Give the backbone structure.
Amino acid sequence: MTGNSKTLFGVSLVGSGSATPAQRITNDQLAARVDTNDEWVKTRTGIKERRIIGEGDSLSKLCVEAAKAAMEMAGWGIDTVDMIVVATSTPDDLFGIAPKIQSQLGARNAVAFDLTAACSGFLFALVTGAQYLQNGTFRRAIVIGADQLSSWMDWDDRSSCVLFGDGAGAVAIELTSNDQNALIGFKMKSDGSRGECLSVPQKKEFVNLVGSFKNQIGRFSNIQMNGQEVYKFAVREVPLLLKDVLGKHGITAESLDWLLLHQANQRILNAVADRFSIPESKVLSNLKNYGNTSAGTIPIMLDEAVRDGRIQPGDLIASSGFGAGLSWGVALFRWHGKT
């Protein structure tokens, strides 16, 4: 799916926020449980520690905190929010958490819904939210990316337990004129034929219902992941899509201010940057502190870079989300918010 440049209105990114759990689990602490060590994890992933939701915390709570921070930066009143889109694959409630977040925020005028696209979720949700603004349906929206993959992890599997963490990030987007449109272009793709490379499948457990009829128990397995295949997928497909989107809009890699990729593995970030000769100084990364927070990685990293002054108003950012589904996408946008 490719973005249509002939929009009626534009969208502006004017606020960001993020929230992560208080619990920090370092590589050394994980080494007390599984056969691994700090040097092995850092060398292969770039991760030093991750945040894990514990007692007294919840994914919904983190989403609310991130959304409040984004609205405060944007200077919005809560009653002016028209829509809340929550990208998550691990909601507190299987039916979704967006309405719960809407209620806890007190956003009585906003419609709220969840979107599931795993590690591509935030980028897909940002594009989705932007469409409602660009066609004039709504004026203001909060887009949240958040996941709690720690709940679906086999913590005795050393190949996967070192990779993931929990967290939430949010952006505030609002309607603007078409000539001020911040979402320059995007493209999204899916390939379900490779979905088994990264999945959380249902457990096929059936029990007697009545007579000879049975029903399935509602349970899911832990994360199933073919790390090598996911890595090869990312380093092959993301550069191809990024080249396509840059070329369509006449933008060179040299003109980018920042490369903001899904924070899955530092080697993937480096490989994509090297493909376009983008210097390390332009590659945003916070993997060492949080690990892979799935739909949360891009907005958490964006918020950090905005708040520490790296990202300035007008900066041109190329972003890509990629992961389970398999799904992947690229978006080119400018940051218009405050610093």
Observations:
- The longest strand covers residues 166-176.
